[in-house]
Design brief:
The chain is α+β, with helices and mostly antiparallel strands. About 65% of the residues lie in helices and about 10% in strands. It has eight helices and four strands; from the N terminus they run ααααββββαααα. The chain has a four-stranded antiparallel sheet. Keywords: Membrane, Transmembrane, Transmembrane helix.
Length: about 230
């Protein structure tokens, strides 16, 4: 092994497994971004929207890696897992990732699978529209909501149902749905207010998502009983 290789590999091996995984993830994201913009005609018009998906992915990954659910009975784990699944489905439904097709609207939709390339994190996007259900896979949203759901599971197993952080988790999805809600509220709020909400929807949802992850990741540790020396 050369001196240069040893000087790089040596310190890397001394890093924790979590940090090594995070560094590998960031390196992959950088390569994906460089490759996407080098091989396509896409251009960066607003850098923060290119980076926001990686905030969701990386923050969620770090929180999941650092969270280990407490020991619990099979019944408790089953109940917590059921709640976590319902929580994920609620977030996905509010974000428009899943939906039901009802009534006369079904005939106007293009049925089947759709594949769309987009900037890493935003894509690749895979969608399915059926006669009863629609499903849209947006990588950073799905991974972010999976991370939140896992943290909800860990929180419930740890007997510390964090109501506040759960509300924040839902708020992160409501923030991303501002463009949809805006069309309904346009008459009452006025065009300027709605446009402002639409412009900041991703910013707001990202900020609240990070807050929700932080609260869900920290609260189980804070709620664990401490031992007192006699």
């Amino acid at each position: 092994m050369s001196y240069w290789t040893a000087s790089v590999v040596g310190p890397y091996r001394r890093l924790s497994a979590e940090l090594r995984l995070l560094l590998a993830l960031v390196a992959f994201e950088v390569l994906a971004l460089v490759g996407y913009f080098a091989l396509t005609d896409a251009t960066v018009t607003n850098p923060r929207y290119v980076l926001y998906p990686f905030v969701w992915i990386n923050v969620g990954a770090v929180a999941v890696l650092r969270t280990t659910p407490a020991s619990a009975t099979r019944h408790v784990r089953l109940v917590a897992a059921t709640v976590a699944v319902l929580y994920f489905l609620a977030l996905a439904a509010l974000a428009g990732l899943v939906g039901l097709e009802l009534g006369a609207h079904t005939h106007s939709h293009v049925h089947g699978f759709q594949f769309t390339m987009a900037a890493p994190g935003w894509g690749p996007r895979v969608g399915y529209a059926g006669s009863l259900v629609t499903v849209n896979f947006v990588p950073y949203r799905v991974l972010g909501y999976l991370a939140l759901s896992y943290l909800v599971y860990a929180t419930l197993v740890d007997a510390a149902a964090a109501v506040l952080s759960g509300v924040l988790g839902l708020a992160s999805c409501i923030g991303c749905s501002f463009p949809i809600a805006g069309s309904l509220a346009a008459g009452a709020v006025g065009g300027t207010g709605v446009v402002a909400l639409e412009t900041l929807s991703i910013d707001i949802s990202t900020l609240v998502f990070v807050g929700a992850v932080a609260l869900l990741a920290v609260r189980p540790r804070l709620r664990r009983p401490t031992t007192h020396r006699s």
